[in-house]
């Protein structure tokens, strides 16, 4: 999931450099959403591992 975030950030950077503002904004928004989902799932998996012991 973190790879998708990095992919969309790279797409956003390239689109911004080339002047495609709408695509860059959309890709950055998608990357932000995927990143927050990743963080939530990561914290949940950490808590599950700690509570399992």
TrEMBL record:
Keywords: Cell membrane, Membrane, Transmembrane, Transmembrane helix. The chain crosses the membrane at residues 7-27, 33-51. GO terms for cellular component: plasma membrane. NCBIfam families: PRK13682.1-1, PRK13682.1-3, PRK13682.1-4. This is Uncharacterized protein DUF1328.
């Amino acid at each position: 999931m973190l790879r998708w975030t990095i992919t969309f950030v790279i797409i956003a950077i390239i689109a911004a450099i080339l002047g495609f503002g709408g695509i860059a904004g959309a890709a950055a928004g998608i990357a932000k959403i995927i990143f927050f989902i990743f963080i939530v799932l990561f914290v949940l998996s950490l808590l599950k591992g700690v509570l399992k012991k």
